[in-house]
Amino acid sequence: MGSSNVLVDQVIVTAVTDSDLSDEGYLLAALLEHTTDGISFKDKQGRFVKVNRVQAQLLQLCDPSEAIGKTAEDLFGVEDARNVLQEEMEIIQSGLPMTDNEQLQNWADGSVTWASTSKFPLFNSVGECIGTFGISRDITRSKETESRLSDAHCDAELFVDSVPSILIFLDIDGRIKRWNRAAAEAFGISRGAATGKLLVSCGINWLSQDLGSEISAMPERTELSRCRLQFTKNGEERLLGLTLRWIRAFASDNAELLIVAADITDREHADEDLLWKTAFLEAQTNSTGDGILIVDTGGNKLLQNRQIKGLFKVPQKIADRSDCESLLEHILRTVKDPERFREKIQHLYDHKNQTSRDEIELLDGTALEQYSSPVLGQFNKYYGRIWTFRDITERKRTEAALRQLSMAVEQSPVAVE
User: Fold this and answer.
1) Is the confidence at residue 359, as pLDDT, over 90?
2) SS3 sequence of the chain
3) Which of 4, 119, 325, 398 could crosslink 134 through cysteines, CB 3.0-4.6 Å?
4) Does this model's pTM top 0.70?
5) Is 277's pLDDT higher than 80?
């Protein structure tokens, strides 16, 4: 009994009988028709004798019959056709297959595709090689994806190398996977020399004895971690600031430990120097009898000495605040002419480059000499304003007493010779 076609939901389905299953020709035809790979048969001269539908599409033909009798020279560019013919002659002569060969195909119309091809010798019943047959698969999309991934990897490496911070990636075993240019410069160890080694033994002279245990303990923690480690370079102790975090690529089970680091030795020394200078400046300002206040461009106190608190009887909670608004409101409640004082301050903030010297009187009778000038840096950059207040109460009283004495002398009837 033969086969028959049945129409089911607008799809032609071939009904197969037992006799069809023993027919090798039928089985081959079914394979050629339904496989997703391109299959072709050639004679010893390299002419196609049979191709399936997929192979015809790979050859950019409309129908499999169009390939019959054609050679590679009829379909490919000259160079590619010469390579194909050479491969097939080697297979025929050696009787050995050539498998999983990725080929860049340049077509006669100028288009370019990629194919993964396996070719085999075709023997007749008496063992003579009468041609070849091949199985091809279009891998153009996968090669394009591979190329894009390669470009993306190159871009990522370029980015990693352009980052000024030290970037180190460790695998789950603590071995170095990536090592950027900043790391090579900071430690004097090339990427090739560091990659694949444990961070604890990659050539860096660590001063920490527990680095290995610290790294091995990291998988137990997923949050951001920060630490400082000491190492030596050229006989000098250096300090490294590190930020560590486990990261996982999208749709991947492989995690990497990202280490972002910087040599903070110079910054640490600069911070220590700044702290010393700040302490020295504060000691100087507190040793003077003048009240000193330095304000930044945002109206925040940069420096306020003890004398400011004493002159204006500033409560501790106001003295502890960083903004100047609450301090100004308190001072306005202590001066005899608050409106004039406020206008003067506003005028100086509106005219940043002006210097001012004035006298103010407090409600308790204290007389203060007020001086203010801008704090200017290089190229006259404005950083804020400094205010100083000096208690001149005794001087004012002495001046008043001298004026009274002078008037008394002038008005006295007794002549002075």
Assistant:
1) yes
2) CCCEEEEECCEEEEECCHHHHCCHHHHHHHHHHHCCCEEEEEECCCCEEEECHHHHHHCCCCCHHHHCCCCHHHHECHHHHHHHHHHHHHHHHHCCCEEEEEEEEEECCCCEEEEEEEEEEEECCCCCEEEEEEEEEECHHHHHHHHHHHHHHHHHHHHHHHCCCEEEEECCCCEEEEECHHHHHHHCCCHHHHCCCEHHHCCCEECCCCHHHHHHHHHHCCCCEEEEEEEEECCEEEEEEEEEEEEECCCCCCEEEEEEEEECHHHHHHHHHHHHHHHHHHHHHHHCCCEEEEEECCCEEEEECHHHHHHHCCCHHHHCCCECHHHHHHHHCCECCHHHHHHHHHHHHHCCCCCEEEEEEECCCCEEEEEEEEEECHHHCEEEEEEEEEECHHHHHHHHHHHHHHHHHHHCCCCCC
3) 119
4) no
5) no
